[in-house]
Amino acid sequence: MDASSSNFGAGSSSRSFSFKVVLLGEGCVGKTSVVLRYVEDRFNDKHVTTLQASFLQKRINIAGRRIQLAIWDTAGQERFHALGPIYYRDANGAILVYDITDKDSFEKVKTWVKELKKMLGNDICLSIAGNKTDLESQRTVSTEEAENYAALVGAKHYHTSAKLNHNIEELFLDLSERMVSISEGQQRKPTTRRNVVIVENSDASANVPETNKTGCCG
Amino acid sequence: MNYNTSSYNPSSSGRISRLISEQADLMCKNKCGHYGNKVQEGYCSVCYKIYKQQQQQQNSARYGPRDEAFGPDGESSQGVFGRSGFATLPKSARLSLDSLSPLTGSFSKFEEKKKQQTDRKTKSFRSVFRKSPTPSSPQPGKKSPEKGSKEASHRHGSDGGSSPQMSPRKVANTDKDQIRDEINTFLAQIPNKRIVSDVVSKVKQCEEVILELLRQEKGSIDEASDIVQDFYKNFQAKTEIVKCYQEISMEDKETLMNLIEKYLTISLYKEFFSPMSTATEDETQDLELQTRIRQLNWMTCKHLEVALNERDRSVRDLVYASINVIIGMDSVKPPQEKLACVTQCSHHIIEALGKSKQGPTAADDFLPTLIYIVIKANPTRLQSNINYITRFCNAACLMRGEAGYFFTNLCCAVSFIQNMKGESLGMPEEEFQDYMSGRSVPMESWENYFLESIHAMEEMSNVVSELELRQQEFLKNVEKFKENMKNKEDRVTEQVDKILKRTPLTFKPRKVPTNIDEEDPALNETSLPSPLKPEVVSIVGASAGNESSVTLPATAEVEREAPSKATQVIPTSSQLVNLTGNDSEEYKEGEEAEVFESISPSPQSESETDLQQERIEGVEKLKEKVSRQKNQASLIDEGSHRQENFDAVGTSSKSDQRGSENVEEGLVVPSKPKEKIKSVDNNDAMESSDLDP
């Protein structure tokens, strides 16, 4: 999804964006809780109306810009790690969630960051969320270490608690703002069509990006 | 490659395949002097047009009314789709055209498909545009005056079977007609005709550019994909920028984009789906994936930690529903519809997961389940379908929204299946290989068989319960029928009774055949006059009348004995008649007995009516005899006189006559009720037929 395509030629005041945000994180770090808290403001609710939390959409407004967030949950199990690139292709943003009580989950975040950087470069906005701050007493990942790492890779770090609804809103809001600014910056560049390549071995067409097509319809 | 800059002229006949070397091969098959074209099956454009028209006419005898707005009127600016047969395909031509569709193909049909695709090289893609149904449509060629004769000669040529590739091949298909109708209906709503003509021309242009590209040997499917994607993107941009498009709403723009995508993909489905240029690749991939999935048949929920509770019946039903939907993906054509199948399958899975565990379903649960479903379903040509969607679905749509997400998940599932190792399932590689090669079967796989058996059992129990229902229904009907029958029976009995009451069948006490030799116990012998004994008188003709006058009162006296009397008398008289010519003295008792016997053999065994009948017959016989002897006997007159007298005696025995009449009446009477019963039966039959389930 190319955010620029949706606001092509629209008036400057009412621009609309739609962003794809992938949600990465090991199983049991609370990815689903974070996104459900954000989209539906619910936590472990028995009356959750939506059956699924794997794909959620949310519309927000930031400074007159209409933004539609499509939040893609990903399977966090180790066995599906290799599938990551398929998920986060063409993503505008990524939220990497780890459990502050689980050192391993933080290590996992690091590997994902590496992959994302490799795949999407600096076009992608990264946010790292240390979840479960309500379990502060059991913390194993030090705040300092996490924040240092986030700064190093150019990501924003948030301490969140889906249970207490702490910092969730801020996390998404900040990410959206950064995505808007990146997208607006990109617009001045000539747009290249991103080829959708789904399976790794069929990416022949991606290697031949056709740039600057003369508009046939204009 | 930009389709806008292409100077493609559809009526040019000079496009010649580089493979053709001889001059003769270059000429029109019709020998009209023009150059032929390989894609036009060796005809020049003029002859080809006529040929196509004929084909079209063969396929549909008559044509439906044309849409005026999009008709083939060359002067109309909006008539482009119509000209290309966009709006005008008759309904009658839409039947049985899908035989060429590769949809039904499984792997066993690869040969067939390949052949089709090879045929594709030789047949015109634009044939769909060539079926302008009116023969009077303007011919671009200068040879139009000779059209008639050419048509005739062409028909001869084709009938002679001179060209093997001229087998009647159907070029249109129903899906395409449907989308044509759809897009025309939609365009008809748009007030601004500039939009309509623009859409029509641009779409057509894009289609032709792609066809042109694919016709070239080097044209790869990826290039086609690029063209299509660029077209989507540019057209989308155009609808946002160009002024006349501002008139239509966002929803309409979206619908228009969808329709355009649908139209392009449907009309070029054969070229786009698992195409020839990459056919080996796509098909090989399909085969590999299918074999791979087949090898993974042993996998269970446990291996992937799928949270499905397959022991729950509703969950199982949803699992099977999702399997059906994903398998159905192969049979729809537009990428959007394929995506819709994926989405629906995913929704079934999510619902099943929702029933299996608490809380909303996240990707952690969803993806393994989808993998499991894909393994269970093993959808046909999965890789081809994925490639097709990736190439020709509007990329903006594909990456946006739920459908894109689920499609991505499907791709992940396929990728996982392809790259699965023992490690991915948390088992030693050796063990994994053993399972893959079928050398051993995992312990857990019993669950697979268990679940499959359960499913089979359920299906059977469904059948059984259905049968049971039907059985119950049947039994109920039988009961009803029985009851009805009983009612009928009662009614019939009642009616019969009524009828019988109305017309009673009363049998008069049957008369005991009287043995004349026996004494009647009711009568004292004393009270009766002694039986008359025929007096043997020496009769001579004239005295016969006297004799009868003597007998007469006697019979009247003893009424009951009349039959015997009469019979007794008859022989006597007959004898007399017989003997009239002879000496009457010769009369003997023995002869009399003999004659009597022949007339009424045994009174006991015969009913009285029979007796009566016989008696009458006897009389008749006698009459005959009498008449026969007319010539001989001179005294015939007296004999006949006597006979007449005797007849009077017969009729005078009134009690006998009445008795026999009564019997006869008794026999006749029931015949009327019988008819009534019959009609009642008919009613029964009619009513009982209602009961038939």
UniProtKB/TrEMBL annotation, chain A:
Cell compartment(s), UniProt: Endomembrane system
Membrane topology designation: Lipid-anchor
Domain of life where this protein originates: Eukaryota
Cross-referenced SUPFAM superfamilies: P-loop containing nucleoside triphosphate hydrolases
Pfam families cross-referenced by the UniProt entry: Ras (PF00071)
Key word Ion transport present: no
Presence of the UniProt keyword Ribonucleoprotein in the record: no
Keyword list, A-Z: GTP-binding, Lipoprotein, Membrane, Nucleotide-binding, Prenylation, Protein transport, Transport
Matching InterPro entries: P-loop_NTPase (IPR027417), Rab21 (IPR041833), Small_GTP-bd (IPR005225), Small_GTPase (IPR001806)
PANTHER family: PTHR47978
Family membership: Belongs to the small GTPase superfamily. Rab family.
Entry protein name: Ras-related protein Rab-21
Automatic annotation (TrEMBL), chain B:
Domain of life: Eukaryota
Biased composition annotated in UniProt, kind: Acidic residues: 583-595
Database matches in SMART domains: VPS9 (SM00167), ZnF_A20 (SM00259)
Biased composition (Basic and acidic residues): 109-122, 143-158, 612-627, 672-681
InterPro entries the record matches: DUF5601, VPS9, Vps9-like, VPS9_dom_sf, Znf_A20
Provenance organism: Orchesella dallaii
Claim: Zinc is one of the keywords in the record: yes
Source taxonomy: Eukaryota, Metazoa, Ecdysozoa, Arthropoda, Hexapoda
Name the record gives this protein: Rab5 GDP/GTP exchange factor
A20-type domain ranges (all copies): 22-56
Ranges in coiled-coil conformation: 457-502
Presence of keyword Metal-binding: yes
Region (Disordered) location: 58-83, 108-172, 510-530, 560-693
Comp. bias regions, Polar residues: 565-582
UniProt-listed SUPFAM superfamilies: Glucocorticoid receptor-like (DNA-binding domain), VPS9 domain
Compositional bias segments (type: Low complexity): 597-606
